[in-house]
Amino acid sequence: MINLRPVTISDVKDILRIHYAAVHGLATSTFYSQNVLESWSPSPTNERRLKQFHQAIQDNTEIIMVAESTETGIIMGFGSVVPSQQELRAVYVDPTFARRGVGTKIITSLEELAVHHGAHKLHLDASLNAESFYCRHGYSIVERAIHRLNSGIDMECIKMSKELHLH
Ligand SMILES: CC(C)(COP(=O)(O)OP(=O)(O)OC[C@H]1O[C@@H](n2cnc3c(N)ncnc32)[C@H](O)[C@@H]1OP(=O)(O)O)[C@@H](O)C(=O)NCCC(=O)NCCS
């Protein structure tokens, strides 16, 4: 079973490991050059990355949730949403647990949280490899675009959005 809970500072290393494994294992060079993959997800031991994630957790503007196994406590994936900007910012799943519904659990929880915090809609810059996943979850393509990474390197993306309905 999968349990969703808010991130804590002690999860940072796991999150960075999963981010790296997901980008390099699931996004892969079929979609992006090695240069883009390295820039999107540098080494998980990179000091700047550690600081960046610590900061994101402490800032509290972004809601970050982790998905963990109820049996083992192992973190299988994470995601984040910024309700004030109606932005779905991240969904990353450890390749070991890919295609087992972990991403679905994460996105469902983030949408519920977004609605709870007053968002009526979510938009995101989807990576090319994740298009099917977001389509499957009711997101529509707005346009193909370029996403500028923190490093200044550009990566192709697909702008997508979804109207959220209250249940
Ligand atoms: C996209 C991602 C989060 C999906 O996580 P996941 O746990 O494997 O997704 P789920 O098991 O919940 O998949 C649900 C459905 O989405 C679709 N889907 C998910 N991954 C897919 C893929 N690689 N190719 C095609 N369809 C896919 C399928 O319809 C799937 O249902 P199915 O397995 O019954 O066919 C994961 O592949 C990932 O971390 N990718 C790398 C990081 C990334 O690009 N994140 C998005 C940044 S915008």
Automatic annotation (TrEMBL):
Q: Does the keyword Transmembrane apply?
A: no
UniProt cross-references to InterPro entries, sorted A to Z: Acyl_CoA_acyltransferase, Bact_Acetyltransf, GNAT_dom
One Pfam family recorded for the sequence: Acetyltransf_10
| MF terms (GO), sorted A to Z | acyltransferase activity, transferring groups other than amino-acyl groups
This one is known as: N-acetyltransferase domain-containing protein
Give the source species.
Adineta steineri
Q: Please provide the record's keywords in A-Z order.
A: Acyltransferase, Transferase
| Keyword Transcription regulation (UniProt) | no
